Amino acid sequence: MSAVTTPRLGCEFDRFLYASVGDDNNGMPLTVLSALARMDVDPWEEASKLTELPQESAAMQLASLLGALRNAPVAGLDPARIAAPLIALLPCPRDRAPPMLKAFAQAAPTKHPAAVSTLLTVLTYVIFMLLSQWLMGSLQAPRQIQPPPTSAPTIDSSSAPTASEGPQTAVK
User: Fold this and answer.
1) Could you tell me which of 64, 88, 57, 89 has the C-alpha nearest to residue 78?
2) Rounded CA gap, 47 and 62, in Å?
3) Closest Cα partner for 62 from 71, 53, 129, 70?
4) List of residues 6+ apart from 30 with CB closer than 8 A
5) Which of 37, 73, 91, 108 has the smallest number of CB atoms closer than 10 Å to its CB?
6) What are the extents of the domains in the chain?
7) CB distance 85 to 6 below 8 Å
8) C-alpha dist (Å) from residue 90 to 20, 48, 142, 161
9) Quick check: 6 pLDDT over 50?
10) Cα 25 from Cα 75, distance rounded (Å)
11) Rounded CA gap, 39 and 68, in Å?
12) Which pTM value belongs to this model?
């Protein structure tokens, strides 16, 4: 088997790779994955290559691979008729995507690293200030609350007029 030159691919090719091609001459089920593996071809790498090709070219490439398979169910059938529906199971790259998907891909927001960096710096500063305020408030000793005075304020009786003196009138 050839060395894998692409990074680990995810499950985007599962529908294609696990699709049935038929049964081999021994009655064993044959999938695209097992057919490619029998030919000593890395299935994920081949699926990735087929995805990058135009649909017609990818179908011809897969048909030639299936036609070269020994002990396969495609010996009596047209490999192109088997390959065409299998190619439809591959994920669409951006250049083969329908026009509506291309419009959404072009409308994707752009990244502004300087704005994001500034925002993260300000956010970090605000969080630091809030945490320091909370920490300082929790470390200060609680203040003693002084109870209000219990006695009422007294009025100095020497300065207040008494009722017996009456109102004072000015003498002319």
Assistant:
1) 64
2) 9
3) 53
4) 20, 21, 22, 23, 24, 72, 73
5) 108
6) 11-92
7) no
8) 14, 9, 69, 108
9) no
10) 10
11) 8
12) 0.49
